[in-house]
């Protein structure tokens, strides 16, 4: 799969989708590596594209990934950020992982976090894996799946 073909198709599909919404936007390819293509969409109407807890953003990203798979018959992982939302969310999730890990060590009991999507759980698991004295597991099904932070001494 040629990266330029993929970028051109991404740009074409995003322009098509975003023009239907009638908003002003700017698309920027932030980072491209072997695993993924990261895109930043800048707009003054970011709330419309982000949605409640990032649900619209996740849906837009999923639709774009499906369109690309249909076009190229290969998985091309595209990560979309809108006006820095994902970056800020990741920062908050890392803070949550650190705080919950400190609490789990302090009370010497497992700490359950609120339900999260797989992307958010992955961020938590990655951060917890770098911290001493705690580990993490996922528990639950579907929309109720959550991360549990477990102190190593229990």
UniProtKB/TrEMBL annotation:
Pfam families assigned to the protein according to its UniProt record, in alphabetical order: KH_KhpA-B (PF13083), R3H (PF01424)
Limits of the R3H domain: 87-153
MF terms in GO: RNA binding
SMART domains: R3H (SM00393)
Entries under InterPro entries matching the protein: Jag_KH, KH_dom-like_a/b, KhpB, R3H_dom, R3H_dom_sf, R3H_KhpB
Domain of life of the source: Bacteria
PANTHER family per the UniProt record, alphabetical: PROTEIN JAG, RNA-BINDING PROTEIN KHPB
Protein name: R3H domain-containing protein
């Amino acid at each position: 799969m040629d990266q330029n073909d993929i970028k051109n198709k991404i740009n074409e599909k995003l322009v098509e989708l975003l023009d239907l919404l009638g908003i002003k936007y700017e698309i920027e390819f932030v980072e491209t590596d072997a695993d993924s293509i990261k895109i930043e969409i800048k707009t003054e109407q970011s709330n419309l594209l982000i949605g409640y807890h990032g649900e619209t953003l996740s849906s837009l990203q999923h639709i774009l990934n499906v369109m690309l798979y249909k076009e190229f018959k290969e998985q091309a992982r595209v990560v979309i950020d809108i006006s820095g939302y994902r970056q800020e969310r990741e920062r908050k999730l890392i803070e949550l992982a650190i705080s919950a890990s400190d609490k789990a060590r302090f009370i010497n009991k497992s700490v359950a976090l609120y339900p999260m999507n797989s992307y958010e759980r992955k961020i938590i698991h990655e951060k917890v894996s770098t911290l001493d004295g705690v580990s993490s597991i996922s528990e639950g099904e579907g929309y109720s799946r959550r991360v549990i932070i477990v102190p190593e001494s229990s």
